[in-house]
Amino acid sequence: MALPSKKAIKEGNITNYEYKMLNHDMVLRYDEEKCIECGFCHRVCPVTTMEVEGKEIPLKRTAIGTPDEMGVDSDLKIVVDTDKCIWCGCCTWICPGYTLELYINGEKKLNLVDNGSLPEFEEEVRTLESGQEVRKVVEGSIKITCTEKDTNLIEKFAEECSTGALSKEGNDVVVDEDKCILCYKCSEASKNYDNISVKVFRDRFKKVKGEASSVWNGIMLRVLGKEGKIKGIKSFSQNKLADSVLRLMGKGTEEEPEV
Ligand code: SF4
Ligand code: SF4
Ligand code: SF4
Known about the structure:
The protein is of the alpha+beta class. Helices cover 23% and strands 31% of the residues. The protein is globular and about 60 Å long.
C-alpha cells in the first residue's frame, strides 16, 4: 500500500475517512444518523478553495460539505474530500450534533484544543424530539419574514428546520428560540422559497473556556463574520491555522514521500 493512504470506508450510517502514514493514522468519523445538516462543519473547515463552476460563478469550497457544496454525487448528507482534508478536527470541534469524531492512533482526540489553539465550549445542550442531543455553539438572533399565502408551503418550510424550532402560525412562521441553534439550514432552504426570507445574526460563540488565539480569530471570521470578511478566504488567520495544523501533524509544508 502506498503511503500516505487516504480513503473513505462506509459501513451503515458510519463513514470513516482515514489517513494512514507509517506509524500514525487518523480517522474522521461521520455518523449520518445524527447529522442535522446545520452547515457549521462546512463553514469552519480551514481548507478553503475557490473553484469556478461552469463559466463564471466562483464557489467557495472546503474539504467538507453537502454533496451540492462539494460538487459531487452522493446520497450522504455530508461528504469529506480526502484529497483536501488535513484531519485537523475543526469540524469535529464545532459540530452541534456530535456527528463527527476525530481519532488519532485509535484515540478520540482534538489536538487543536489540547494545545490551546481552540478553546472548549461551555456547552448548552438541548434534546430533540427524536431523543438526539444537540448543542448550541453560537449566540445571536434570527429574523424570518414570510409573505407566503400558501399554507402548505409555509408548513413545508417549517419542516426544513434541523431542530424542530420552526412552526406555522396562521400565515406566518414562528421560531422557538429555545430550540433554535442559529444554524445555516433554514437560511439556505429559504433560497427555494420566493416569499420567505431568513436572516440569522451570529453575534458571538457561546462562552468558551480558555484564551482566544489567532486560530480562533480566523474561525470567528469564517463562522460569524460579515459577508465581506468571509470573502477573505486566504486571510492571514486562516493561513496561520493551516500552518498550525501542518506543524501538529509534523508535516511542515511538504508532502510525505510515497513509500
Ligand atoms: S456540523 Fe455536524 S451536524 Fe452539522 S452538518 Fe456538519 S456533520 Fe452534520
Ligand atoms: S478535519 Fe479539518 S480539514 Fe478535514 S474536513 Fe474537518 S475541518 Fe476540514
Ligand atoms: S430555525 Fe434555527 S435551528 Fe432551525 S434551521 Fe433555522 S437557524 Fe437552524
